[in-house]
Specification:
Layout (H helix, E strand, L loop, with lengths): L7 E3 L6 E3 L13 E3 L5 E2 L11 E3 L18 E6 L4 E4 L5 E2 L7 H4 L10 E6 L3 E6 L6 E4 L17 E2 L5 E4 L2 E8 L9
Antiparallel strand pairs: 1-2, 3-4, 3-5, 6-7, 6-14, 8-9, 9-10, 10-12, 11-13, 13-14
């Protein structure tokens, strides 16, 4: 590979930018270890991203010129403009009033359960949501009319999400914003 065409990644030890076709860090001198599964650099024996075995870049069975291209996970955001809630969602994080990374935003919403939802992402089905047995339930709809006619989500059953659809989390309505295309602009 032509070094001028190589990409950069951060050394797992000193965080310096190094060329992806390097076997050793130019700054700290440590040997570059790559995950056999995802191709990302790491240190130790196991990848912090996916648990795959780390092998020396010079002997790894991965493409050592650059980590393999992975489809980026499209951004998911829940928005309630009236309550001024603009919540970027993390994959597999608990969405609740007292548990998970959203407690600061949801703490004042008494009807939302302490542990209400979990969002997931699958490269085939996209973003999903699961009610985890909340007290007041969750509803999903492509329109935000006739909520009283929408059934509550069955607990622990994932439901695929669509851009510009709606979630009624207990009594709080959110608009779903998905950034499906690279470079697409998010509307807020």
């Amino acid at each position: 590979m032509n070094r001028s065409a190589s990409t950069l990644f951060a050394c797992a030890y000193c965080r310096s930018d190094i060329e992806s076709d390097s076997f050793f860090c130019d700054q700290c001198g440590k040997e570059i270890m790559l995950c056999e599964t995802c191709g990302l650099p790491g240190r130790g024996e196991w990848c912090e991203e996916d648990g795959g075995a780390l092998k020396a870049a010079r002997t790894a069975n991965t493409v050592t010129s650059a980590p393999p291209a992975q489809s980026p996970v499209p951004a998911l955001k829940l928005v309630n403009e009236n309550l001024r809630l603009f919540i970027p969602i993390q994959q597999d994080a608990v969405f609740g009033r007292t548990q998970g990374p959203y407690t600061a935003q949801l703490g004042a919403q008494g009807a939302i359960s302490g542990k209400h939802l979990v969002f997931g992402y699958d490269p085939v089905s996209g973003w999903t949501v699961q009610d985890v047995g909340s007290t007041h339930g969750t509803k999903y709809s492509r329109t935000n009319t006739n909520w009283h006619q929408q059934p509550k989500l069955t607990p622990h059953v994932p439901v695929a999400l669509a851009d510009k659809a709606f979630l009624l989390v207990a009594n709080v309505e959110f608009t779903i914003q998905l950034d499906n295309a690279a470079g697409a602009t998010q509307r807020i």
